[in-house]
Design brief:
Number of helices: 5
Shape: elongated
Largest sheet: none
Structural class: mainly alpha
Number of strands: 0
Radius of gyration: 22 Å
Length: 182
């Protein structure tokens, strides 16, 4: 399933691309496969960037309230995503140097799409959606449980049981350097 930020980013990109090539440069239309190519690449890239933003928010949400976690994590992740986005957009823009209409269209669409996705969708829209929907917006993640919660995520239950006894392991970790009684 595609996230709403990726879909909005893709639609904005296609709109900007059509506006540039049809309205400004006077082309008859985009080459038929350019929107499909750009869609596949931008949706994939958006999913990758979401891992950075939302993963960082989940990590911070373990230690602090969600709103504070968003403020800290989104600013840190957004810097990295913006720098990566500018570098990748520049690389795609260089395709416009090839004197073929298809390459120029893909180059402009990808450069515009990556900038829109990195700067607007991932830096502003995704943190806003997480803040709007709260912990429900972090589904299906199980790592987003409240700090200090006694609930153990399902995937950690098996590792929280002693081998063969079925008893939970104590919540307190042994001091460093302490050896187990074995």
């Amino acid at each position: 399933m595609t996230d709403p930020a990726s879909v909005l980013s893709l639609l904005a990109t296609l709109g900007v691309t059509v506006w540039i090539f049809q309205d400004r440069l006077g082309y008859d239309g985009l080459v038929y496969y350019v929107p499909f190519t750009v869609a596949v690449l931008l949706i994939s890239l958006g999913a990758d960037y979401n891992v950075f933003v939302v993963g960082r928010i989940w990590e911070e949400a373990r230690r602090r309230p969600l709103r504070d976690a968003i403020a800290v994590a989104a600013s840190q992740a957004s810097r990295a995503i913006t720098v990566a986005g500018v570098a990748l957009a520049t690389s795609f823009a260089l395709l416009a140097l090839i004197p073929l209409q298809q390459f120029r269209e893909v180059a402009v669409a990808m450069a515009a799409g990556i900038i829109i996705d990195a700067v607007i969708a991932r830096s502003l829209l995704v943190p806003a959606l997480v803040a709007l929907f709260g912990r429900a917006g972090m589904w299906p993640g199980r790592n987003a449980h409240a700090a200090g919660s006694s609930r153990v995520p399902r995937r950690d239950r098996a590792s929280a049981l002693r081998a063969g006894t079925g008893e939970p392991v104590a919540d307190v970790e042994p001091a460093r350097g302490a050896q187990s009684a074995g």
